[in-house]
User: Fold this.
Amino acid sequence: MDTLAQQPKREINYLNLFWLTATPAAALFGTAWYLIHYGLPWANLFVFAFMYLATGLSITAGYHRYYSHRSYECGKPLQLFYLIFGAAAAQNSVLNWASDHRDHHRYVDSEKDPYNIGKGFFYAHMGWIFYTDPFANERKKNAPDLMKDPLVLWQDRWYPFLVVAVSFGLPTMMGLALGHPLGGFLWGGFFRMVVVHHMTFLINSAAHVWGGKPYSMNNSARDNWLLAPLTFGEGYHNFHHKFPADWRNGIRWHQFDITKWWLWVTYAAGLSSKLRSVPEPLILKARLEVEMEKAKQKLETLPTPPLKEKIQDSLDSGRRQFLSAMEKYQKAKDNYSKAKRYWSRTMRQEIRNEILKYSNELNACRKSWSHAMRLINGLSYSGARNIVILTTLADIFKSHS
Ligand SMILES: [Zn+2]
Ligand SMILES: [Zn+2]
Assistant:
């Protein structure tokens, strides 16, 4: 742990402090005053919705998944869109944002993590922006790719101008075209900017405090389904910290990840390519390791060593079966994709059948493992039921060996 004397000196950044406290006040009082005097014309809602989606997606799909993690590739038109509307989110230039974020992943939960949750909810949410960053120059070393990108450097140079012109000028002009310039300025400018600010900030605060840890127990990041719709899908943060290069955060089809759907649409439209995803067996393996860790913690609470050890042995053998099924499945898939061009139709059919066989085997192991985890949850401090659980576990895993 860092002692106070070791902590680098931080000074207050008065401009940021003023900006982040004055804009919510202006957004709240400005829109309330406007509502009382003019109501809420549809034109204002339209400008708000457009600016909200454009700037929100530019942060999540652009600043985050493209520039910070390079989880896919995209051409200059989309890059320009992200740079222009990302600047309009008023969260710094992408060069600074992405290098902060890369360090957040690299040094998560430690002194060098720019929004270290260990310093409290408010600090991780927005308090960190009120101070100068003692590691600011050092951080840029993690972004040599961005330092070489002329469009990124252009955005960095023109960032203050872009904030004024796109964050406030554009919604005002849109409002003017629809007959409500002040409404455009307040709803599409101030109010939208504050909502997108806090949407992003919640990932650094709430998604490091509340939720489950299905993929990794090694850091504070959580999966929080409730946060996902509020944050353009970034609420599945435990998965993201485990596999940051994956283009998705919510990997299941039903998980609300609007950024993932946006990327899929841009991919279908030919605007982006090479969406990188982690192979399913690796994701399964991560879950397996976490569940094993949780099971071990549960076993620690049992008082009887022989029973405890027998259950542990049974789980170890289940884990080995699961991993071996996973390996066989992945190998068969890799073989198929490497050699399919050179093989005859019969050989291709044969390997497809093999893949199907291993996939069924893997699914069976997965079901048995889930069953075993439910049984482990039913273990109690003492009681005959624990013996029954041990016998059932042995039966489940024997059927696969
Ligand atoms: Zn995080
Ligand atoms: Zn990230």
